[in-house]
Design brief:
Elements: H1 8-15, H2 19-27, H3 31-36, H4 45-52, H5 56-59
Helix pairs in contact: 2-4
């Protein structure tokens, strides 16, 4: 059985208590929506980058 590589930004969000709540509030979405992400959606990258203190290029290198 192979392990799927966990997205670094998603791992950081899930590892830090309260971070998903801050992201959800900033984006005006439900916390559950953030938990469903496998990758940060392209239209959410800039806001998430500021909150988790990670460059957008590192969050979604396929876009930036």
């Amino acid at each position: 059985m192979s392990k799927r590589k966990v997205d670094a930004a998603i791992a950081k969000i899930r590892a830090n208590r309260g971070l998903s709540v801050r992201i959800a509030e900033a984006l005006k979405i439900r916390k559950a929506a953030v938990y469903q992400w496998k990758k940060v959606p392209p239209n959410r990258v800039k806001v998430v980058a500021k909150i988790i203190d990670m460059p957008p290029e590192e969050i979604r290198s396929d876009i930036f």
